[in-house]
Description:
Radius of gyration: 32 Å
Number of helices: 11
Oligomer: single chain
Number of strands: 18
Shape: elongated
Helix content: 10-25%
Low-confidence stretches: 185-193, 219-228, 307-312, 345-357
Mean pLDDT: 82
Distance between the termini: 65 Å
Structural class: alpha/beta
Strand content: 15-25%
Largest sheet: 6 strands, mixed
Amino acid sequence: MIDTVRLNIRAGSGGxxxxxxxxxxxxxxxxxxxGDGGDGGSAYLVGDSSYNTLLHIKFNSTxxxxxxxxxxxxxxxxxxxxxxxxxxxxxxxxxxxxxDGSRDLLTDIHSNTPxxxxxxxxxxxGNSRFATSTNQExxxxxxxxxxxxxxxxxxxxxxxxxGLLARPNAGKSTLISRCxxxxxxxxxxxxxxxxxxxxxxxxxxxxxxMMEIPGLLEGAHKGVGLGHQFLRHAExxxxxxxxxxxxxxxxxxxxxxxxxxxxxxxxxxAGKRQMVVVNKLDVTEVRxxxxxxxxxxxAVSREFExxxxxxxGDVMFISAATGEGIDAMLARVAGILEGxxxxxxxxxxxxxxxATPPRPSRLPESVRVEDGVFVIESERLERLSxxxxxxxxxxxxxxxxxMRRSGLAHRLVEEGIEVGDTIRIGEVEVEWF
Length: 433
């Protein structure tokens, strides 16, 4: 089962603005008419109940969104890039990977509301945007903004009503195969099941989802026997059914071990409603020892009663092989679920999904000197100079006007700039005059 994926997102860049002038018959010297560039496409994650693994993006883990079209003459705006929607299973937790290796929790996908994970860049302005009464011949146009780049870590935690917990080879696969149409692998050796199995169970008029969680070993909360991968899926179950092997040397110790693993992995799991069910009632030895096994398990249940949500009640005995006692067990499970609120993943401490989150503010503009070169850091000037022909004196004059308007020209003078000194704006170098 593919339940973790590293996803690289590259949102579309905005289209470049156009520097154009109207040239028509009888209007040989028309004004500027360069159009703006289109906005780049954004990337969204969307919950889709038709998927139950992340396999469909495991080998397509880099997503490039469509960039915006460039502006054209006659004030024609470029087309916006199409947004990209990436379907993921319900129950997918989304993390953003940082450069230092840490992760920030973004959201928990539990609906089909699109969640923005990569914002497309804005289109650049055409030269008609810069026309004023004192600048009637603007020759500058903006380069489009770059789209967001992000590295995400997706982690699937399956959603189910009932989670079957047990040590290996307790009969979980046989039970879920008999209760539902799930095709779980059944064999007489431990770790037959190596990934969670979901099955829809009908009891009377009630339907619920049962999940078989692969067998747990002591130390599962530390990762023993792939315990981390298995217990992660157990977090979303509303009710736990502890399936105890009636032929075990110490059924109470098995119950205690599984409960302790839940407690150490996440204390909230041990506080959920739990049931205790003993399997293999068809074996004479188990049938004869019912009172003894039930007494030992009830004693352990009383120890956990303070940390659990409600009294686990009587211990139930079933035979997954013959079906004895299963109907009564399912009826009780359905009754418990009916009286429990349907939990949904909480967004506490997470980012709230929004199709139009606020754009980040621009970085502050600055001036510094490196090896005799005056370096200007200004997002706006970098976008303006990127498409400019610096051999044109009009371009230099208009760049200087923008620097004076933003206060950067004054800061250059304070830094001691002189005529002939080199100014670097992004990848463009010009001379101060």
